[in-house]
Recover the amino acids of this structure.
């Protein structure tokens, strides 16, 4: 499947954004692939920009990373990072999290995600 130059550049930038989001969550390509229902090779190709990401897959990716689809495709600005400092307690927790193995970190992040999701459905 041949893409025009601007399409190729767009999907490469989109793939790089997906890579950044995935890595920021401590998620592997295989984990993302399972979550969106595609192969790990498909995620690899999306991230390199060698394969177009369908609207349906993009919606799933956006949902997983709690990001609006509009922000993913560049139609709106991404939400700004919260300004302000972390409390000393939060910093200690972050340091403790960093001391864990990657597998343990993913486990803790998943627990937080589940709690966050259950919290948002209650409100």
């Amino acid at each position: 499947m041949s893409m025009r130059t601007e399409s190729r550049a767009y999907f490469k930038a989109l793939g790089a954004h997906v890579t950044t989001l995935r890595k920021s969550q401590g998620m592997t390509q295989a984990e993302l692939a399972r979550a969106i229902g595609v192969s790990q090779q498909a995620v690899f190709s999306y991230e390199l920009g060698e394969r177009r990401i369908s609207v349906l897959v993009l919606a799933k990716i956006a949902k997983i990373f709690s990001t609006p689809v509009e922000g993913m495709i560049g139609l709106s600005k991404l939400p700004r990072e919260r300004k302000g400092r972390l409390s000393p307690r939060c910093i200690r927790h972050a340091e403790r999290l960093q001391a864990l193995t990657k597998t343990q970190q993913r486990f803790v992040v998943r627990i937080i995600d589940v709690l966050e999701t259950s919290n948002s459905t209650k409100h």
Observations:
- Helices lie at 5-24, 29-36, 40-48, 55-64, 69-73, 88-99, 102-122.
